[in-house]
Amino acid sequence: PLIIQTSVKPSKFLGTDVVVAIYKTIAASAPIPICLHLDHCTEVDYCKKCADAGYTNIMIDASKQSYEENIRQTKEIVDYCHKVGNISVEGELGTVSGVEDQVKVAENEAALANPLQSVEFVERTGLDLFAPAIGTAHGVYKTKNPKVDFERLAKINQLLNGKGIKTPLVVHGGTGLPEDYIQKLIAAGGAKFNVSTELKRTLIDAKYDYISAHREEYDPGKVDTAARDAIRKAVGHWIDMLGSAGKA
Questions:
Q1: Is the dihedral angle over the CA atoms 90, 127, 130, 187 positive or is it negative?
Q2: Considering the entire predicted model, what is its pTM?
């Protein structure tokens, strides 16, 4: 399956109706299942708006709130989305450092998810996907060997499985992680990896390189084709690395 993801800013810029219309057009002719995911939305009302508009997956990010408020907001969105239709909901516990949608979380403000609390969080909210903070970061890592708590993710996965809870675990901040880190995270239970920064950089770099090499051309279609080909290659690489090919 393929995930088309927007964060809140581009979703608001284009408008939910436009985003959903583009998604439905692509999905209608695709040979594999495709979903439309809203990432890191901190606004309860906007989560509901996107669910009503036709998004198939919603991430409510109330991780900066108190634990109880995080549960309350997450459960509210879970209940709403499950009532509206077959809409899955992702929630986060702890905070991931870095910059996402131009919202910055300093390293000293980031907090890792507590394994026992993680199980309670999943049970009380009823969410469909769970993103525990394990030391990864949004944006670009400043070191080649970022400090990631593999054992924490494995423990959370173990505790959930021990209770018969099969909620997939999400790893945010996948851009720039070494491949051996990715494989360790998969072994620890990681089921969905977010690499927004890598794809955005790939898009921008491909357009910049093409325009720089073809200064006498004025064909936006060729610029977009160069970007599309680069994105296709990058996404294909991640699908292969995560072992997701041929599983739709």
A1: negative
A2: 0.90
